[in-house]
Amino acid sequence: MAANVMRKVSLRSLASHKIRLILTVFSVVLGTSFVAGAVIFTSTVATAFNSIFDNVAQGVAVEITAAGNEAPGVPVTIVDDLKKNEQKLGIERVAASNSGPVTLADSSGRAVQTGGAPSVGMSYLPPDEAVGEDMKFSEGRAPEKSDEIAVNSQAADKGGLKVGSRTKVVVGAGLAPPMDVTVVGLTDMPSSTGGYVGVLFDQATAAKLFSDGKYVSTVDLAARPGVSDDQLRDAVHAHLADVVARSGKTDFDQLYKVRTGEQVREDQKESIQQFLTIFRAILLAFAAIGLLVGTFIIYNTFSMIVAQRNRELALLRAIGASRENVSRSVLLEALIVGVIGGLIGLALGVAIAAGLLAYTQSQGLPSNGIQVGAAAIISAVFVGVVVTLLSAWIPARRASRIPPVEAMRESTVEPGAGSLRVRTLLAAVFGVLGVIALVIGGLGEGAGSATIVGIGALLAVIAVVLGAPAISQPVVGAFGALFQKPFGTVGKLARTNAVRNPRRTAATAFALTLGLMLVVVIGTLGWSFKGTVDSSVDKGIRADFIVTGTNNMPLPLSVVDAVKEAPGADKVVAQAYGEARYDGKDTYVTSPYGGSIGDVASINVLEGSLDLPDDGLLISSSQARDNGWKLGQTVTFTSGTGDEVATEVTGIFEDNQAIASSMVGWPTYEQLMPVAMKRIAGPVLVTAKPGVRAADLRKQLEDATAEYLTAQVQDRDQFKNSISSQIDQMMATLYALLALSLVIAVLGIVNTLALSVVERRQEIGMLRAVGMSRAQVRRTIYLESTYIAVFGALLGTVLGLAIGIPLVRTLAYWGLEGVVIPWALIGGTLVGAAVVGVIAALWPAVTAARTRPLEAITAE
Asked: What does the pLDDT average to over 473-496?
């Protein structure tokens, strides 16, 4: 019976405070919608990619490829061996193909932008020679001559190309000049997703362009009738492992992959799933931040509700309701809020996912429609309910302890000063421990120190949560006293209201504190990274111009040779990049191409010299430290073909972020990267001859690189700005994700002020009765809100700097040179907080100003 009565009380309480219900539900909706949107979006994309990968390698029993990305491929001798042993191994057909990177020009002569997706050229195999499904042409035909290509339809549409279009293709590392070609066919490739560019050549042309005649990229096998894919894979693996062992190479599995068609499909699914898992984790992390902020808002809301309903709850206790009844009544309200918020959040999450999918589809990524699975529904409702119940638990517990005698009081009663003293003491303990951890972590470098800083950050946040009420009174009182003077009595009243309930002020402000703390931490990291970029270029590079690839694309080595032809160019050097193995792990190797790296970079040699003999190895001090290498030591690398190549450390230089941390002599690089088409260059550094004007040299360089579709010429400032813009884009993305928590924080201020206006209705009525105008009432609420917002921003800024500065110092291990404090961001944040305070107070201020004096004074 009592339970039914309390249930009715809860429902009527919610129904009678609709605005309060809407605001509380909305704070839950924002967090849960992000969770649901992340789950729905990643599930939908995964389903779409899986449907595409299901069509990859269809009809292929076994596929053989090189194990490493930079390996030259599968030797032609292996292809010949397989053909000789077809009957013995159970092979029906062997199909070898060649492929490699290409750059396709659009109808205007510029490179078709892929947005990071692959741009690949490959052999076209006719149906009687291919293994697997036939290539389908939506228009035109297959290429038959060296100057003919077929292109996937999506890339053709993006580039404004059609059957009959004349265009250019830069192949591989650009060892061959750009090719003038004609588009003779458009294809529908299963892998045509995103900005993917697929270019088909006839077999002879592909072999010439992508191979030195000794290797092929892929070998596909068809099984004889009665031979399963697994049986063929095992037989081929055993046979080839024996062949490789007899040749004296390293372990077969380090050189080649032998997989069934099903394994190829599953591996591709797994690769995209790994990316989506990381992407989902990032989205959920920001959703968690929003939910954490929402937790404080919900806690604050229910705390105020319980305080305002002291008399009501005490009367219920007086007429027989037990403590459990009262507690359950409050939790029931929270449960209803959580369920409603979760369901609306789910609907909004579907809309968010639809928006993300619309954008990704515009970029060419696949979609099979929104996939709203059980996981999304459960996660949204579960998170909404759990977060709300946890947030309301302490207020519910507090409500159950209200004695019946409270029914005789006229005012609400907040927890006493004793509990505040305990909180402050605990805050001091956590704060001291946090400061110690932040200082110790900030004095070190590397992952261990960063972990200590992370622990210190957690302790500091806990300290602020516990200590904010004690801090709020002196801090808000201080800057409130400073800013109240222009507003006279109104300013003083606003300051008094802001400090009268420190717990409420702290809980409301902390929602903003957490979001702005992360903004400042991200800003400190981003500005420090940009400072390192500027410093590295200014101190480490002597070049006047830098030739780079658009969209971070690598350059062919032939660009270096072309740049050398510019009359005004003096020193022209690039670093050629490749991949090898050291101590069983993949590692990058580089080599100066075009001259000595010391000609274009400022390098401080610590030991040895910059002279790089054929078998020499130049390393940075951090590389020497991490690997334990010393001057004169022999370091042996393993190439993609399994050959071991010995080098000797001939020089150790001070870390320089503008150049690679290890460089080998050119002959050594050629041994490690035996296939010329796989050799690529990073930025080409160019110095001007004495007396040559910068504008003249720029024009010469642009003319020299005009035929290379991806090359762009930048001066030092442009080069720095291009890197900084990438950092800015990353920061903007993170700020956009953090906007969720900031919106929730603003709603929290609105909610608190709205409830506070209801709570102080009689007080406001009295002020109106003694002469305060509506404008003065509104101004009071505006100032009170501004004080709370600025207090939260100040806490967030201090906390963000306390965490961001030591965190940046730990990253010195990875090359971050120093801390750059984002003063402009901090200033903008504080001003923005004041603006946010005014915006958040608009509705509560109008509500307060409309209070009728007589009705408010006589209201119960």
From this structure: 82
Residue 430 maps to a domain: no
Strands 148-152 and 99-104: unpaired
**744 occurs within a structural domain:** yes
586 with 689, same domain? yes
User: For position 407, what pLDDT does the model report?
Assistant: 47
- What confidence tens digit (pLDDT) does each residue in 343-368 have? 898 888 888 888 877 777 666 666 66
Query: Is residue 753 over pLDDT 90?
Result: no
Helix (H), strand (E) at residue 355: helix 323-362
Closest CA to 759 of 728, 784, 727, 786: 784
Give residue 115's pLDDT band: very low, low, confident or very high (50, 70, 90): low
Count of the separate structural domains present in the chain: 3
Cβ(784)–Cβ(503) below 8 Å:
no
Q: How far is CA 727 from CA 285, 530, 723, in A?
A: 20, 7, 7
Share of the chain above pLDDT 70, in %: 90
Q: Which residues pair with 96 in a beta bridge?
A: 219
Considering the domain boundaries, does residue 745 fall inside one? Answer: yes
The answer to whether 753 and 781 have CB atoms below 8 angstroms apart is yes
Q: Which amino acid is at 689?
A: K
Q: How far apart are CA 62 and CA 702, in angstroms?
A: 47
Q: Are strands 218-223 and 62-66 parallel, antiparallel or unpaired?
A: antiparallel
Tell if the pTM clears 0.90, that is, is over it: no
Could you tell me if 772 and 625 lie in one domain?
no
Domain that holds residue 858: 473-541+716-860
Distances (CA, A) of 623 to 448, 617, 627, 663, 669: 18, 11, 6, 11, 18
Are 656 and 691 spatial neighbours (Cβ–Cβ below 8 Å)? no
Task: Report how far residue 67's alpha carbon sits from residue 200's, in angstroms, rounded to the nearest whole number.
Answer: 24
- Max CA-CA distance within the chain? 106
Selection from 636, 631, 629, 671 nearest residue 651 by Cα: 631
Q: What is the predicted pLDDT for the residue at 857?
A: 62
**18-53 and 261-308 helices cross at what angle (nearest 10)?**
180
The residue behind tokens 């969209």 is: 551
Report yes or no: 507 and 789 within 8 Å, Cβ to Cβ: no
> How many other CB atoms are found less than 10 A from the CB of residue 354?
17
3-state percent breakdown (helix, strand, coil) of the chain, nearest 5? 60, 15, 25
Tell me the pLDDT of the chain averaged across its residues: 84
